[in-house]
Automatic annotation (TrEMBL):
Homodimer. The keyword Zinc applies. It comes from the Eukaryota. It comes from Panicum virgatum (Blackwell switchgrass). It holds the Pfam family ADH_zinc_N. CDD domains: sorbitol_DH (cd05285). Keywords: Metal-binding, NAD, Oxidoreductase, Zinc. Its cofactor is Zn(2+). This is Enoyl reductase (ER) domain-containing protein.
Amino acid sequence: MPCLSHRSMMLSTISVRALNCYLEFAERTEQNYQQEMRIAHFVVKEPMVIGHECAGVIEEVGSGVTHLAAGDRVALEPGISCWRCRHCKGGRYNLCADMKFFATPPMHGSLANQIVHPADLCFKLPDGVSLEEGAMCEPLSVGVHACRRAGVGPETAVLIMGAGPIGLVSLLAARAFGAPRVAIVDVDEHRLAVARSMGADAAVRISARPEDAAEEVARVQAALGGAEIDVSLDCAGFSKTLATALEATRPGGRVCLVGMGHNEMTVPLTSAAIREVDVVGIFRYKDTWPLCIEFLRSGKVDVKPLITHRFGFSQREVEEAFEVSARGRDAIKVMFNL
């Protein structure tokens, strides 16, 4: 892929090879680009390389790079912001309007044998953290950013709507932030079984019917021993899931919208407003890689159970990997070893 791999190194960039790259068709990003050729206002207009979750080994560094060297193993943060706008200067670079993000049109992604990337967006992995785990810093960052925005901590009971990949990493992040009780809901019993194995205190199957929300909230609260829910993380992003999160969250609590299932939703905001339930959103993440790597190094977070399938990078294996990801079923994270 010549547009991502070249030999003329800028002063502050590095060349990374031997990438570990993941697919997450259970989430919307690659799935929408592959099937619908767009997500929100990002439209695929010409052939585009996908992939935004990756780690690899440094092959070459620019002359201005002093903190990394060839042979270092690194995890890559996939968004390059302008560092000049108000958001960047204010520390919220994830909101930069001029962001160049892997696999977001027209920017190519990281599913390649070699890429060139800014050195300050490449984070060295400790000896005890594998390249596979390093690549998982990207989805884990979503959960970490959501927990920060929602104020998750040692006194926070958390409800997670959706047990897909992002719901599961949000479960891991909430635990790492000290949440004493975490419940998770989904329509799929297999995903709930995975959530139980990863430490959810309660895993409740719900329906897609809005009229069932009140009864389902009661079941979740009962499963948590009657504890009030301080924070809800909606990792699905549908009208039903957000409405349930708003109803389940205690007065004065907070709901964080993480998933993007629907671009437009109809939800009962008035009842939430009179209970002063705060609603916040997230867009990607910021300043999360060092904390994610520390969570992995210390063992506070174990992402290995989320890696369910591994493939090489031959034509046959690539096609099979995409088929496995698209089918879903027991696939959570599908990895390419390049």
